[in-house]
Amino acid sequence: MNEDSSNRDFELRLVKALIKLIYESRGKRVTIRAKLLLKIAGENIDQSSIVRVSMLLKRLVLKKLLKSEVRKRFQKSRSLNYVVHEGMFLWEIAKNNPSHAEKLILEALSS
Question: Fewer CB within 10 Å, N side or C side of the chain?
């Protein structure tokens, strides 16, 4: 039970960091990386945390709240980025009502 509670707290901190990132953005698009989200949330940046964040972001892509993009960096190297832009539902809610956006994401993650 305690592990489940700490996992929910971890997710809550990440969701708050995601909303903060979108809310404070000045452009029309935000690119989200697992390490960046951990840094904003004030979490330790280690491999297991990066994997947990990546899994959370993938779940948000499946719920159609984020988009994923593959970016080729070098000839064989690829990186996976998650994107929120101006026309997306999450962008509008996070900009206009951050607390509602937080609840929306948490509900999407729990279902």
Answer: N
